[in-house]
Amino acid sequence: MDKVELLAPAGNLEKLKMAILYGADAVYLAGQEFGLRTASDNFTLEEMKTGVLFAHDRGRKVYLTMNIIPHNQDIKKAASFLEKAVETGIDAVIVSDPGMFSVVKKTIPELSIHISTQANITNIESVSFWHSIGASRVVLARELSLEEIEQIRDGVPNDMELEVFVHGAMCISYSGRCLLSNYLAGRDANKGDCAHPCRWKYYLTEEKRPGEYFPISENERGTFIFNSKDLCMIRHIPELIKSGVSSLKVEGRVKSAFYVATVVKAYREAIDAYYYEKPYKFREEWFEEITKVSNRDFTTGFFFNKPTEADHNYATSSYIRNYDFVGIVKGYDNENGLVLVEQRNRFKVGDTLEIMPPAGPVTKFTVTQMLDSEGNSISVAPHPQMEIKLPMMPLPENSILRVNKQH
Question: What are the φ/ψ torsions at residue 62 (nearest 5 degrees)?
Answer without folding.
Answer: -130, 125
